[in-house]
Amino acid sequence: MKHWCLSLILILGSVLIGHGQTSDELKRKQQKLRDEIEYKEKLLKQIEADSKSSSTKVVLINKKINQREELISSIREEIVYLDDKIAVNEDLIEAFEVDIARLKEEYTRMVVQAYKTRNSSQKLMFIFASDDFGQAYRRLKYLQQLSEYRQRQAEAILAAQRSLESKHLALEGQRKEKNEVLNAQNKEKLTLNREKQEKEKELKVLSTKEVQYKKDLSAAEKSASELRLAIKKAIEREIAAHNEAAGTTGSTYQLTPEARELGNNFVANKGKLPWPVDKGEIVAKFGEQAHPFLKGIVVKKDGLTISTTGNSRARAVYDGEVSRIIILPGAGKVVMIRHGEYISIYTNLKETFVNTGDKVKTKEEIGIILTDKGKTEIEFQLWKSTDLQDPSYWLYQAR
After folding, report:
1. Opening angle at CA 196, ends 194 and 202, nearest 5
2. Are strands 332-339 and 320-328 parallel, antiparallel or unpaired?
């Protein structure tokens, strides 16, 4: 007997397999978000006592809130998935119950019929009453097949009952899992509300010190301008010295075949370059952007400001040669690495492991990032000759 629920089971089973992959992806995404939130909380603990790090603090709080909202959204997706899964199992259970009832009804009829013909002499009479040997053989096979069919029906009933029991257990587990996910969602919502309250409290405190923060911002912009000028002059002097030695003139670096190939390889890796730190958070992007908490104020950045943990090491983003190491107040030690006509800049180092002229490899550690009152930040810049570039287009997943 063919049962209509068999096709349904196969179809729904394939659906569940597909959703199983989606569920795994959701759980991996949630774990990644939790890890990133935990890392931001670690950075915030480092700088919470430093009033001068307020800008970084507000950026990290905003990022943490955004990722918490994304986490809640992912959990909501998982709840929808579990609801679908529970509904499918409820439909399967109903289908199994209907199937078992039909199997039992059919089996009962066969048992009753078997009881009526239980006498062996009646079976023999049924066979001997045949018109010929062929018919007698067919009647004998019929009785054998009828007995085997009753046995298969009994086994089918037992198998369906076992499957039904299994589905009940699965349904119970799914409902338990859904309750756990709902509890996790409620917990994350409470945490999100607390974080938003903390943010509002932080902004309220910052608003009372706006004059001082504007002074600090002005001083930071002055230091950035001095750094920009120092880097540009260093690049210009290097170009002039190189071209003079090569017997050429011009405002651009005259590349050797080897340097040109290095530059071409550097360009070929645009968007795939490793970060200048093993792990960090971008707290300020390249170019002009609104200040994190000073209304109406626009700040300009020459690179990416990356916040990381104390004693973190800066590392080269690609093969190259150390062209300059300069020291500036407010920027610490600055390492410049040339990659053909491109120069990567690593600022705010308290210690360097390289010297001018050294050849470095991708991800090679070049120094220790300076920590000032709990804040550990590196500004990564990228220049093409004397023109600034947006590093976020070059580093892997930096946009």
Report:
1. 105
2. antiparallel
Q: What is the mean pLDDT of residues 148-162?
A: 66
**Residues contacting residue 283 through CB under 8 Å, at least 6 positions apart:** 55, 56, 59, 60, 305, 306, 307, 377
User: What is the DSSP secondary-structure string of 189-244?
Assistant: HHHHHHHHHHHHHHHHHHHTTHHHHHHHHHHHHHHHHHHHHHHHHHHHHHHHHHHH
Query: Which positions ≥6 away from 344 have C-beta within 8 Å?
Result: 276, 316, 317, 318, 320, 336, 337, 380, 381, 382
Cα 35 to Cα 197: distance, rounded to the nearest angstrom: 22
Listed by start position, the domains of the chain span 4-207, 210-393
Partners of 328 in the β-ladder: 332
Report helix, strand or coil for 48: coil
The residue type at 358: D
**CATH 2.70.70.10 corresponds to the domain 210-393:** yes
Question: CB of 53 within 8 A of CB of 374?
Answer: yes
Buried b (16+ CB within 10 A) or exposed e, 150-180: beebeebbeebeebbeebeebbeebeebbee
- The two three-digit tokens of residue 75, written as one number: 């959990």
Q: Which CATH class is domain 4-207?
A: mainly alpha
Give tens-digit pLDDT for 61-95. 999 999 999 999 998 888 888 888 888 878 877 77
pTM reported for the whole predicted model = 0.73
Which is higher by pLDDT, 129 or 346? 346
Same fold, 4-207 and 210-393: no
Euclidean distance between CA atoms 357 and 325, whole angstroms: 10
- Judged by DSSP in three states, 116 sits in helix
List CB contacts of 82: < 8 A, sequence separation 6 or more.
174, 177, 178, 181
What would the pLDDT profile of 17-72 be if each residue is shown by its tens digit?
444 457 788 888 888 888 888 888 888 888 766 555 678 888 899 999 999 999 99
